[in-house]
Structure formats: C-alpha cells, structure tokens
From TrEMBL:
Keywords: Monooxygenase, Oxidoreductase. This is 4-hydroxybenzoate 3-monooxygenase. Residues 176-391 form the FAD-binding domain. Residues 437-503 are annotated as: Disordered. One of its GO terms (molecular function) is FAD binding. InterPro entries: FAD-bd, FAD/NAD-bd_sf, PheA/TfdB_FAD_monoxygenase. The keyword Oxidoreductase applies. The lineage of its organism: Bacteria, Bacillati, Actinomycetota, Actinomycetes, Micromonosporales.
Length: 503
C-alpha cells in the first residue's frame, strides 16, 4: 500500500478530473488523503479517499464585480499564492505526520503541492488536470488567444498577494556589510532608514547586489579570482517616445560602429550606439544621436522614426567573472558574480537562472536533507556563465569596430557575419547559445525538443527559434532571424554584395 497525499487547487476544474484517479487508487488498496476546502468533502468521501479540510482566504473585495473574466483568470495564480500562505503550514505538518513512505500528488496550479513535497522530502508527481504548459505557452495569452488586459485594480491585487508571500523588504538602508561568511551563522549589519544600526543573523546570505554591491568584498583575501576584459568602447543608449521603426530588433554593423534598434512597447523605442570608451554624454545632444543612428541603420526601404528622448546614458562594455560563486554560506548570484557585454542580451537571463538554481539548492539545504545541490551551485553556474561569457564576447567581437582593427581583421569580421546569417548550422548555434543560459539541459545533451522549429516566415530551410520561447528583457535580440537583419551602410559596394548574397 502506498500513501498518496492529493494536493489539488480547490477549484472544480482541477479537483473533478482527479476523483476517478483517487477512486481507482483506493480500489487497488492504496490510502489517498485529500487536502481541500469544505465544498469538496462529499465528492472526496464518495471516492473512498480521506478528507482533510483547508481554509483559503475569501476573494479579494477590491476587484470590481464586472471584472473581465480574463483578468480573473490571470489572477488565479496570485489567489493561489495567497492561499498557499494560509494552508502551507498545516498541510506540511499533515504530510510529515504521514511519514516518509508518502507520495505527494499535486496539480499544476497547486502552488503549495510541490513546495510541501520538497520541504517534507518526499517524492512528488504532478497531474496536468487542464492544459499542458511549457515554454511555448503563455498563461496570459494562452487558451483564449488574446492578451489579458492589465487593469490597475487587478495588478494591485496581484502585487499585494505576492507581496504577502515575501519576507519584508527594507529600503533606504546604509552601511551594509556581510560578516563571517565561512561560519554557521553569517551576519549582515546595516543602518536602517531611521539611522538605527541593526544586525541580521542568517542561515545563508544570497549576494544579489549587482556589480557594485558589497557581497563580493566579504570573501576573504585570496578566496576570489577575477577574470576581466574591458572593451575600448561603450554603449550610448536612449529611450525615445516613438513607435519602433520595425517590428523586429535590428543589429547593425557599419563602418562607423555598431547600432541597435529595439522596442520597449508600441510607443517606446530603445536604441544604442557604439561610442568610444570615455565619451561624455554632454557631447551627444539628441540631434547628433538621431543623425548617427540614421547613418548606421540606413538601408533601402527603412525609415528610422525619431522622437523625444526620454532617457540617455552610457554603459561600459566589459566581461567579468569571479570564481567561485560561493564562500561558506555566502552565495553570489547575477551581476554580483559576473558581467557580460550587453550585445548577447544575457545579463539578466543569467541572473534569473542563478537565482532559480540557488532557490532550488536552498530547499534541501535549509530543510537539513542534503547539501549536495548547494555544494554544486558554483560549479554548475560557472559552467553556464562561461558559455554565456563566450557567446557575449563573440557577438561583441563580431559586431563592433575596434580602434586597432586592420583591414585583415575587418574582413574576418565580415566573413563571420556572412557565415552567421547564411548558414543554418551557424544560425542554429547562435539560437542555441541565445537560449542556453536559462535552460536545464546543456548543448552537450543536444537541443531540447521544441526549442527550434521551421518558421513559415523565414527563408526556406532556415531554422529559427520559436517566437514563444521565453525571453527576458530584450533577451531575444540574438536570434538568427534577427541576425539576418544585421546590415552595413546601404550605399557601399560591400553592402550591395551582402544583399545579393542574401538573396
Ligand atoms: C544597457 C544595458 C542593457 C542590457 N540589456 C539586457 C538585455 O537585453 N537582456 C539581459 O538579459 N540583460 C541585459 N542587461 C543586463 C541586466 O540589466 C543585468 O545583468 C541584470 O540587471 C543583473 O541583475 P542583478 O539582480 O544581478 O543586479 P542588479 O540589476 O544590478 O540589481 C542589484 C540590486 O541590488 C541593489 N543593491 C546593491 N547594493 C545594495 C545594498 N548594499 N543594499 C541594498 N541593495 C543593494 C542595487 O541597488 C540593485 O537594485 C543590460 C544591461 C545594460 C546596462
């Protein structure tokens, strides 16, 4: 006999499909225990399974009665997150009491199902009671085919509910430093917003404080090794109130340097120019920026839309990796541990992937079950970080003008560009690198099924990344379909030859 803890989101569409499964398991001599709200008591009893009651918070009164049903649908995860706060402790105690010979069976929307299994240290199986979801399916645009409207009231509820799940966030703190990271109880000292000196005694410290944060400085002397490359140029970026000039990102390679056109929203465009390192922002009035962008992005049939500049800034272009990403109970994640040049659009993706890996490693560590995942954190992440570093360095080297380039180097760059935009193998490699840092399988294991597909809008035979694959901020810039748009200044014979070759 197996004991099965059924943790299902308390909604008819999720509970009903599980009832025949429970009935069959009971008939085969297994013990099935459901944790559900009272309305399901009779339905569960009819299957022969045991019933334990959970109480979830009432619907939020702030949502107007005439709320679009799609908004209500979109808020379900937030509602369940709020419910998780209430029900998790009781369900966890109950599952622990059942003992180690228990299997948690949870449905895909039951936020606390997986958590309970992980913390209790018992095996878990997920039931897909409704649609399957993966990287090709977005909940917000999913089964109904239209985007859920973002009404302010709905987002307020969403933020509020998720906020309740998190630990308190302290703003305006000062003089932060990390102490004794090698000990069992590392400490973080700081001055709070009211000027009071405070100490936080921790199980672990996650150093997610960016490139200029203090976490790295808490490593003892000699414990960290830093690998670094500074590039002889910077990116001048603007945010402009103007609709994007094209529906895709454009990476432009020109005699005058690199330029990038990307979009933030239907009304806001983000644009970048390669400029020499040490350039001063005062030397770049808006007109000069638009003129330079127009020259570098010029190609037949393309009109650059200009508009008011909302933001303007310079970003250094550098590659940095610090190793290892862990010292004792201090763990680095994101820009605190590594920086990539923005050309590969990988920085935020790497940071999120670090955080995801770390969160998974902390569950068994903090519940006292195993240190194995946490022990492997630094090596696992550095393996991927270096892959992303190489990809970002490679994209940067291919697309920028270097002050000491000679004609030979320039022809090598063009040869690489032509190869990248004309070879299916090269384009596939670029797509794989573009998505790899956040994936759970490695390139060595081969492309995961479904990450590439034939796209009807692409050139015949060209494989491009699925447009539904998840991407971070501007993270999809480096897809082959987009790389094809990489261009030189339109008027030159070189550009004409490239265009002919593409055709
Ligand atoms: C121009 C540009 C374009 C980019 N484009 C992309 C892109 O298209 N795709 C992509 O994936 N990435 C991109 N990135 C990179 C991305 O922005 C970063 O890699 C990402 O933000 C790193 O996240 P993080 O949380 O590690 O660090 P950060 O975003 O730097 O966050 C660290 C936070 O910690 C806070 N902090 C620091 N010290 C303390 C302290 N003592 N106490 C309290 N708080 C503290 C900081 O204020 C900051 O809010 C781009 C970067 C730039 C500059």
């Amino acid at each position: 006999m197996t004991q099965l803890a059924f943790l299902i989101a308390p909604m008819h569409g999720h509970v009903n499909p599980t009832l025949p499964v429970a009935r069959e398991l009971v008939a085969r001599g297994h013990r099935v225990i459901y944790w559900l709200t009272a309305q399901f008591r009779d339905a569960v009893a009819a299957t022969g399974a045991e019933f334990r009651e959970i109480r979830t918070p009432p619907p939020d009164p702030r949502l107007p009665a005439d709320t679009d049903p799609l908004v209500t649908l979109a808020l379900i995860p937030a509602r369940l997150a709020a419910a998780a706060v209430e029900v998790l402790p009781g369900v966890l105690d109950g599952v622990r009491e059942l003992g180690p010979d228990t299997v948690v069976v949870y449905d895909q929307l039951c936020v606390w199902g997986r958590l309970v299994a992980e913390v209790a240290g018992v095996p878990a199986a997920m039931l897909c009671t409704t649609y399957a979801s993966n990287e090709h399916f977005s909940f917000l645009t999913g089964p109904h085919g239209r985007t859920v409207p973002r009404i302010p009231a709905a987002m307020e509820v969403f933020d509020g509910d998720l906020g309740r799940l998190a630990a308190p966030i302290l703003f305006d703190v000062d003089e932060v430093s990390v102490h004794d990271p090698g000990g069992d109880r590392p400490r973080v000292t700081f001055t709070d917003a009211g000027g009071t000196a405070r100490t936080l005694v921790c199980d672990v410290v996650a150093g997610c404080d960016g490139f200029h944060g203090v976490s790295r400085t808490a490593f003892p002397p000699g414990a960290l090794r830093t690998y670094r490359r500074e590039y002889p140029f910077a990116w001048l970026g603007i945010l402009a109130r103007t609709p994007p000039s094209h529906h895709e990102l454009i990476y432009a390679y020109s005699d005058r340097g690199f330029a990038l056109h990307s979009m933030r929203s239907p009304e806001i465009t983000r644009l970048y120019l390669q400029v020499p390192a040490g350039e001063r922002i005062e030397d770049w009035p808006d007109d000069r920026i638009w003129d330079e962008l127009a020259v570098r992005l010029a190609v037949d049939g393309f009109d650059l839309r200009s508009g008011p500049v909302l933001e303007k800034g310079l970003t250094s272009v550098r590659s940095v990796v610090t190793e290892p990403m862990r010292y004792g109970r201090l763990l680095l994640a994101g820009d605190a541990a590594h920086i990539v040049p923005p050309t590969g659009a990988k920085g935020m993706n790497l940071a999120v992937a670090d955080a995801l890996d770390l969160s998974r490693a902390l569950v068994p560590f903090l519940s006292g079950r195993s240190t194995e995942l946490l022990d492997g954190y630094s090596d696992r992440r550095l393996h991927r970080v270096w892959r992303a570093e190489h990809f970002s360095w490679w994209m940067t080297s291919m697309l920028h003008r270097f002050p000491d380039d000679d004609p030979f180097e320039r022809r090598l760059q063009l040869a690489q560009l032509r190869y990248t935009v004309s070879s299916v193998a090269a384009a596939t490699s670029l797509a794989e690198n573009s998505t790899w840092a956040c994936r759970t399988t490695s390139p060595e294991a081969g492309p995961r099924q479904g990450t590439t597909r034939r796209d009807s809008g692409a050139e015949p035979g060209r494989t491009v990344r699925s447009p539904r694959a998840p991407s971070g901020r501007e993270a999809s810039t480096a897809t082959p379909g987009r790389a094809r748009r990489t261009r030189r200044r339109s008027g030159s014979p070189e550009a004409a030859r490239l265009r002919r070759e593409r055709r």
